[in-house]
Please model this.
Amino acid sequence: MTSKGPKDIREAVLKAALPDIEREGFSDQVLTCAGKKAGFKPIEVNSAFPHGAASLVEEFSHWADARMTSRLKNAKEKGMTARITAAVRVRIEAMAPHKEAARRAAAFLALPNHAPLGAKLLYRTVDAIWRAAGDRSTDFSFYTKRATLAGVYGATVLYWLGDESEGNDATWKFLDHRIKDVMSFEKFKKSAREAMEKLPDPFGLFSGSRPRN
Model:
């Protein structure tokens, strides 16, 4: 039998964990039970999820990012505004079958001790969205674009979590309005700088993903 690598283990355990997450939330106990259901030894699960429940939340976020990126490979929207809007929508739709898990993840990341992880995952998501939309910037706008979209994406997800409209129509209208508010260059630049000024040591936080010329 071929042994599975950490990536395969994380994917299998997350899949096994989702039903329990939607009932009980993200916890070390849920992770342990999912590992058993997926047929892995505790040492394998601990290695693949070194930070326990936090690593499980991280895997859920990466899973949704990957689904968004895959679904956008053949996107036909023209213009950056349309592509960014489509990417945000597809990222949210990727979580739709597991909306309660998304709600549980948001609650987990809202805890003060999980704020650094929440910031890291939010940055990775908005970076993936810009890249999927075709952004190739390498100057300061690389950061300002991501800081601004972080506000739009975060607000839209929170709106979606409470949206009970048919087809989530209210969420998509909310998204359209927020995108229009920030995508003009001058508003974009001003709001992004203000957002960056409020973040502690943003370049330290983002240095691991800084693009190179």
